[in-house]
Records
---
Amino acid sequence: ARPSLAMVDKRVLNVNVGILGHIDSGKTSLARALSTHFSTASLDKHPQSTERGITLDLGFSSFTAPVPENLAHLPYDEIQFTLVDCPGHASLIKTVLGGAQIIDVMMLVVDVNKGIQTQTAECLVVGEITTSELLVVLNKTDMIPEAGRGEKIAKMTARLGNTFKATKFKECVMVPIAARPGGAVDMSAGGAPATGVTNLVNELMKRVEAAHCRRLAKKKGKEEFLFAVDHCFPIKGQGTVLTGTVLSGRIAVGDSVELPTLKLEKKIKSMQMFKRPVQFCERGDRLGMCVAQLDHNLMERGLVSAPRTVPTFNAAICVAEKIRFHKQKVGSKMKFHVTVGHQTAMATAEFFGEVPAVGALERDTVVDAERLLRGLSVTEVGVVTSGGTAGATTGGAGATAEATGDASPVELTAKSFSYDREYKYCPLLETFGEARKRLDESGDAAADDLAAQQATAGETPGFATWCVLVFDSPVTCPSDSLYIASRFDSDINQNSCRLAFHGKVITAIDLEKQPDGVKKIKAFKMKQREGVVERVVDDNTVIGKGMFKKETDLSMFAGMSVVTGDGEVGKIEGGFGKSGKYKVYFARGIGVKEGTIKLYLRFKRYVFDKEAKKMVQ
């Protein structure tokens, strides 16, 4: 038997369990049925929420359980499940994203009488991006007549199983419950006891060790302290208490922390975990920390960090992957609501990808991009930075690089972002499925003659794997944060996913301090000009026309190569006269030809350096 320890000395393993789902699926009722401790942000204090019976903000509560025999080897005396009750209604889905980053296990609550609904699907997308553990809770089973209850639950379980086959949660467990038998008339406690809760707690217990192992894996490297604040309130004579969850690192009473959005440093006076005093905290812990001389009105939600570790920026270079449930076009120069850290801001997105190999078909480019994105995975199983280790599962690809044998971690991470490399600018961000479908329908076009081959050389479309985000207003968050870009302005009554793409910030840019931070990205578009030979001067020299306007400064094009329809390569020596004509020299000569001789000038133009208008061949 374990020794009896004083409450303050108990070693507690905290597991954060997110409760997500569509409006009125019974999330808050489930949290009430499970909870024994209510935190200061618990179960939505918003008066409108109580009146309407829906959750308008993140709510936190908890319950504790003894360590079972099969987990006796873990160095803990008690397991605490912190329940993060997230809103599911359409207009506030972005609040879910702020909570998703602190979740170890996700419980997706589904009304067994209705099945998957719009916000259920969006919460499932968030889960794919942010966690690897999912429990499906089939709630409101008490609303089904008892005679046919078992049959209807079985049918819904099979139906949902088919839906989850298309996700990384294909083997997820489904638990039928009635969190509030008889239905919720209001949010006050009481009423008939919940049913099925014991089975649900048992399923949560099965996931404790996996959550603990993932947390240990994340602690192996040195992590800076980061704390997500969800509530702030004053205590007379003590100071201001910030409640929230430790996202990374470790901190102790007496250490200094920074409130990066306010640019303030404070010393920690004391800490409590659900009313129990503690001397330190680490990743995954839920607690309140007290600091002195802070106006609680200045901060309701946000971040607390180790001093000078969280930047403020207004642009970012990111890994980007389209969410496959989003059916609308995702194009460069479109605006999105970007949720990063605990902030949501408008941003303009532009996409780019790796330069296709010489002679590669577009189909090959898509396969290469898929391997790269797997190597730059941003999900739970081993969060990867631009220089990290590969082999984690992406929310979109749903497979691991190592499992598929497509590429080694070294090959994948060698393609991390660099200002020194060139990239292909992409007008669209596509899923791999969209690209393959388009290719199957159109086929890979092959040029029939040499002139056409020369004209399209290097024009294999790039597949977007990178993104530049330029924010309308500055954001403050860790420079390697996950983000999700959404179109919240879409019609909420349409049964469609508004979450558009997601990824991880690779490089944070403050454009005031780094004005060339976006400009120096070498993402190019291929440009082509076409002209004809007006007359042949001699075996090596021709005069061309039709490629430039008469006001064009031809000195910008001097020394650039042109090619004839037969593949002969010459260089532009300069202008000829003042009508836009130009002289071309062919070092190996130009053969005698009948009819019109076409000339093609192809060059790259770097998209982000709009002022320089630099052309490169």
Note: The first strand starts at residue 12 and ends at 21.
---
Amino acid sequence: VIVHEDMTSEELVEAYTAVRKKHGESLSDEQVARVMVAMQATTPTRAKYRVNASRSLFGGKRVKLAFTQRLGSFLGTAKVCPVEEETADQTAVGTFYLPVVKFAVLESAGNVCIPVRREGDLSLPACVYFMTVQGTAHRDSDYQHVEGWLQFVPNEDEKHVTISIIDDDAFEEDETFYFKLTEARVDGGECAEIKAGVEQATITIIDDDDPGVLSFGTEDGKDTVTIVQHAEEYIARACVQRRKGACGEVKVWYYTEGDTAVPGRDFESCKGQLVFADKQMEASIEIAIKGAPRYNTRDSFRIFLMDPSGGAKLDSGRDGGGERNILTAFLEADAEVKASIDRTHSILRKKWQKSKIGNANWRAQFKEALMVNGGVSEEDDACPPIWQDYVAHAITLPWKLFFALVPPTDFCGGWLCFFCSLLAIGFVTMIINDMASLLGCVMCLPDDITAITFVAMGTSLPDTFASLSAAKAEPYADSSVGNVTGSNSVNVFLGLGLPWMIAAFAWLGGGKDNAKWQRKYQWIPELTDTLGPPGQREQAFVVMAGTLSFSVAVFSACAVICIALLAIRRRVIGGELGGPKASKWATAITLSCLWFLYIGLSSWQALENGGGCAA
């Protein structure tokens, strides 16, 4: 098969098939073309064949076609193609020449075989000196240098010299070197010569170490990819593939660029160099996707490939062309999560209509107050009421109806409900305070003891059960402990501070008109430092401390012990609540003892100061 520029399509197909058959099906189209270019020579045309046939019939001088026949014989050598042949007149005696002066050999062929021919008198031994000469290919790195005398025995007209081709994994352009005949000798003193024009052969080494073409590897071959953004941060990978060759190490630079997706909010910007080892066909770019819940939004950012090295190229057919490849990444919500959210929202929408704290229908508040547990329908998940629920409902029914008078939150943006609730709570607190004072009077207990026992227990029991529920439901102790500390902070700072401030302003500048105040506080010696000498005092808001100082001191001491116990539990057990059974019981007993100690010492001090039943 000879390649020339005037080949028809059918002849080109034949040459293409022959090259692939001889050199391997793994060659790329570019490598096949390079072999075919190296094989280019002048091919006998149909006219030459016709002239040759005519001259044969009429005894004319024949056109020599030995060139094509000899070339066909060399095509049988695997991976080595002789691509040019010269034929000399067989008139010289003792002449050496190279029948093929141009070779194309794949780097992976291993060697190339150069034929050397002898013409003339073949009855005598002869020899010819040969050597390789560097071109763009370098000796001992691209091929093994050879030189020496090639001996021909009598009647031997052709010998071969084998040159080793060095195969490496580095990408190189096509390189050439030369095989040259320099001196000829014939035994017996006969004249020997080297034919001019065919004493040197050119060998082209075609590099088949193709480093490949780089591009983003997507399933559908498009220049877009969809990345699911979860609620938690995770690492997404953009695949980069290497095709049409994988020889040698190649590198390519990459970087990201935000679009509607914002770096730092939706993903972490990254820039670097992706390295492909020898024979590695695929690598990945790691991109940190920020945790952000999505439902129906879609944002995008871009990933760029540019500046490949090691002989690799970027796919010119992809977005961005051969200078840089662009992959557009779309951030979307997980379809399964979205479906779950839709189902959950549908369920919650039904429950929200039933469990709103503020109802636009004021009548519904009274209906719920009259029914046990607010009325349980068949669609509710709550368990049906038990006998304890009926007993509690009977006891609390008057209070439920009273608080049902509070307007729903739909009026005035909820502010009307807020202030009415404060008034209702204040009214109930006033009743409880008076009832506790009357109970203490009946039991001959001073107000100090009544306040730290009955009143305190009544106001703290709801917080106790709220902390109990939080401790069971929450994985951490923050809600249960914070509920107690927050409630007591409100009681101390707001529950005491606000009434005292209001009373102080009310009594300020009141003069000496109140006879009861005059009888009670005008002549007490202990008030001299604060209100002045007896008989000259102006009316003011006065609350006698009594045993308050001692009670606060005991409470503070018990509080310090409690906080220290919680700190020890965190260090030893790992948490304020829970832990081994023994530690839980020990903590519960210790805290209960602190409460009883506080009640006992405060009550003892109150009784020592003359508290109890009036005479």
Note: Residues 478-507 form the longest helix (30 residues).
